[in-house]
Every structure is written in C-alpha cells, then in structure tokens.
Amino acid sequence: MGALFLVQAVSGLVLACHYTAHELYAFGSVVHIVHDVNYGWFFRSLHSNGASVFFICIYCHIGRGIYYHSFFLKKVWCVGVMMYIILMCIAFLGYVLPWGQMSYWGATVITNLFSAIPYIGLDITKWVWGGFSVCDATLKRFYILHLYLPFLLVGLFFLHMYYLHQVGSNNPLGVEDYGDLVTFHPYYSFKDFLGVVGVVGGLLMIVFFSPDLFSSPENFIPANPYKTPSHIEPEWYFLFAYTILRSVPSKSGGVMALGFSVVVLFFLVLRPKSFHLGSQFYPLSQLFFWLFVSSFLMLTYIGMRPAESPYYELGYYAMVLYFSYFMFGWCLERFWDYFMVHLQYSRLGSRRGNWGVLGIWPFNLWYHGSAELSWKDL
C-alpha cells in the first residue's frame, strides 16, 4: 500500500500541473491531459485505476484485521479506521474533479446528504457548495482538499506505524511470543518486494490493456446540470455504503445507516475478548465472517443495479447481514468457548466424579476462572 500511495502521489502531482479547477474548463483540461500532454494518458489512467487497486488492498487489509482480531490493538486500529475515512474523502473529492456527468451528479447526491441533519443541514449543504448548488466554488474547494488531505493521511500513517511498533504486529496464532523472531531483512523485505511487484504489475496491466475498467461511461460526457443520468452511482469502492443508503426508506435513517456502516469499525475495539485471538480457531465465527464478506460483495453488486425489485429487497437483507456480523459475531465465539469448556469439564467430571450443575457451573468456570480447571486441560 505504501508503493501504491507513492504511485498516486507522483501521478497526481503530474496531473495537477495541467489540470484547471474551473467548471467551464475542468473537463476540457482532462481531455487535454489525455490527448495532448506527453504520456498524459498514462498518468491519468495510472491515477484513476491506482485508486481502485489501492482500495482493493485496503479492503483486504481491513478484512484480514477483522479475521485475526487485530482490532484489539486499539490505538493501531482506531488510527487505521481514521485513515480509511480520510482516504474515502480523498477518493470522493478526486472523483468529482474530472467534472463529467457522473462526477457532477455524484457530488450533488453526496453533498445533499448533509441536508438530512436537523435544523442546520441545509445551511451546511450551501456552505459546502459555496452557493445554492454544486458550482465552480465547489469544484475549487474539492480540488484544494484533494491536494492537502493526503498530507494528513501521511501524518496518520506515521502515527499508525508508531503505535504498531509499540505493541508489535498480530499473527495468525494470536500469541505474543518474542522467542522465535526473525530479522526483517532478507525474509520480510523480499516478501514485501514480491508483493509490490505483483500489485504494481497488476495495476500496469490494467493501465495498458483495460484503462477504462473501473470508469463509468457517463463520466465521459461533460457535466450537464440540466440532465440527470438515469442511474447515478459512485465508484465501486463506495457502492456498499451507497446500497445501504438507499435500502432504508427514510432519508435521515439512510444517512445514519450509511455513516454507521463505516463508523461501526471503531466499535470493534469494544468487542469482548474470546479465549483465542482470531476467527481461525472458531468454525462458526469463520462461517459468519465469510457470510459478512459475501454481504459486502452483494451490497457492492446491488449498488450497480437500479433501485427496483428484486435488488431493493436483496440489498435490505444484505445490509441486515452486514450489520449482524458486528452486532452478534462475538456471541458465536463466546458460545464456542462455553461449549468447549462444557465438553471438557464433562470429561473431567466423569473422571473425578464431580459433574456439578451442567449448564451453569461450567459457565461460571469459564467466566470467573477456577483453579480446578485450567486451559492446559483443554
């Protein structure tokens, strides 16, 4: 991800040298970059597709952290979620800059979400616009924020690394053992090098052979405030949240659900700890995790479809499954821990002639601890 961020920074700097942040010239400046600037087509495609590949890596990173319970490293996790939110803001602002049809109407739809805030929502929306609708002032503000927010992201990155190096990285075994450490070089440095080559190589394949893979056809048309596209949709990495937004009938409820779909990652640090760190030790939790991943992919797919039956109903069920993982995922791990203690205590009780009150006493053993049964007996 560090290599991709560097690619985005360099390509973005080149594009900024030729881009014009004006509602009359923004679309034409992008066309000028692609057709007239030396290798402009390459840097433009590299920047736009690089954002998509970046988010693929981000979602894999977040999914890995959830699977192996890395959210118990609370400071590391919270800073990482803040980086994710800022990255979403940067990507949205950058999506508006080409000033095509989908860029303009996407900005209109997303900024209108502020109007759902009671009493002050409309004033906030006009303040963001710099007028009574998305206009030249909006484009200039988005351009400035798109340039400067990455510096905040870099600062959070170093804070993320600082907290991570204080406690050490998580591992698939979920244990803290410093006796079998290996040096970073050459083992991990070579592994990281192969990862960088693979990801950047895949990005270059997209740039050279399918540069419009993640682009919307509507965005090749200049922005027209008088003609609304038949189906407005954001970039694919926002589609899961967009589907959640339109799956709730109420506007204010949909905005709250959209925000909570991202903010809910913060609440994972409050999740009760299980005996083992990671879903890999819990079969039911593994099943629920992959159902959660399936719901995320389903929400992303449904976001590409029109808001009609059966996509509306499927989006609602996928949204329920998405939030259910965060609300009830820990219960399956607690149940599995209780089940294993219950089973082992039954075996020990049959040998010792002391069964206790099954269903209550094993739970007290598990919750409060007991010298009679240690985890070495499991």
Automatic annotation (TrEMBL):
<dbReference type="InterPro" id="IPR036150">
    <property type="entry name" value="Cyt_b/b6_C_sf"/>
</dbReference>
<dbReference type="GO" id="GO:0016491">
    <property type="term" value="F:oxidoreductase activity"/>
</dbReference>
<feature type="domain" description="Cytochrome b/b6 C-terminal region profile">
    <location>
        <begin position="174"/>
        <end position="344"/>
    </location>
</feature>
<keyword id="KW-0249">Electron transport</keyword>
<feature type="transmembrane region" description="Helical">
    <location>
        <begin position="314"/>
        <end position="332"/>
    </location>
</feature>
<keyword id="KW-1133">Transmembrane helix</keyword>
<dbReference type="InterPro" id="IPR005797">
    <property type="entry name" value="Cyt_b/b6_N"/>
</dbReference>
<dbReference type="GO" id="GO:0005743">
    <property type="term" value="C:mitochondrial inner membrane"/>
</dbReference>
<dbReference type="Pfam" id="PF00033">
    <property type="entry name" value="Cytochrome_B"/>
</dbReference>
<feature type="transmembrane region" description="Helical">
    <location>
        <begin position="254"/>
        <end position="270"/>
    </location>
</feature>
<keyword id="KW-0830">Ubiquinone</keyword>
<comment type="function">
    <text>Component of the ubiquinol-cytochrome c reductase complex (complex III or cytochrome b-c1 complex) that is part of the mitochondrial respiratory chain. The b-c1 complex mediates electron transfer from ubiquinol to cytochrome c. Contributes to the generation of a proton gradient across the mitochondrial membrane that is then used for ATP synthesis.</text>
</comment>
<keyword id="KW-0349">Heme</keyword>
<keyword id="KW-0732">Signal</keyword>
<keyword id="KW-0813">Transport</keyword>
<dbReference type="InterPro" id="IPR016174">
    <property type="entry name" value="Di-haem_cyt_TM"/>
</dbReference>
<dbReference type="InterPro" id="IPR027387">
    <property type="entry name" value="Cytb/b6-like_sf"/>
</dbReference>
<protein>
    <recommendedName>
        <fullName>Cytochrome b</fullName>
    </recommendedName>
</protein>
<dbReference type="Pfam" id="PF00032">
    <property type="entry name" value="Cytochrom_B_C"/>
</dbReference>
<feature type="transmembrane region" description="Helical">
    <location>
        <begin position="46"/>
        <end position="64"/>
    </location>
</feature>
<keyword id="KW-0472">Membrane</keyword>
<dbReference type="GO" id="GO:0006122">
    <property type="term" value="P:mitochondrial electron transport, ubiquinol to cytochrome c"/>
</dbReference>
<dbReference type="GO" id="GO:0046872">
    <property type="term" value="F:metal ion binding"/>
</dbReference>
<feature type="transmembrane region" description="Helical">
    <location>
        <begin position="282"/>
        <end position="302"/>
    </location>
</feature>
<dbReference type="GO" id="GO:0008121">
    <property type="term" value="F:quinol-cytochrome-c reductase activity"/>
</dbReference>
<keyword id="KW-0999">Mitochondrion inner membrane</keyword>
<dbReference type="InterPro" id="IPR048259">
    <property type="entry name" value="Cytochrome_b_N_euk/bac"/>
</dbReference>
<keyword id="KW-0812">Transmembrane</keyword>
<keyword id="KW-0408">Iron</keyword>
<feature type="domain" description="Cytochrome b/b6 N-terminal region profile">
    <location>
        <begin position="1"/>
        <end position="173"/>
    </location>
</feature>
<keyword id="KW-0679">Respiratory chain</keyword>
<feature type="transmembrane region" description="Helical">
    <location>
        <begin position="103"/>
        <end position="122"/>
    </location>
</feature>
<keyword id="KW-0496">Mitochondrion</keyword>
<keyword id="KW-0479">Metal-binding</keyword>
<feature type="transmembrane region" description="Helical">
    <location>
        <begin position="76"/>
        <end position="97"/>
    </location>
</feature>
<feature type="transmembrane region" description="Helical">
    <location>
        <begin position="143"/>
        <end position="163"/>
    </location>
</feature>
<dbReference type="InterPro" id="IPR005798">
    <property type="entry name" value="Cyt_b/b6_C"/>
</dbReference>
<feature type="signal peptide">
    <location>
        <begin position="1"/>
        <end position="16"/>
    </location>
</feature>
<feature type="transmembrane region" description="Helical">
    <location>
        <begin position="193"/>
        <end position="211"/>
    </location>
</feature>
<comment type="similarity">
    <text>Belongs to the cytochrome b family.</text>
</comment>
<dbReference type="InterPro" id="IPR048260">
    <property type="entry name" value="Cytochrome_b_C_euk/bac"/>
</dbReference>
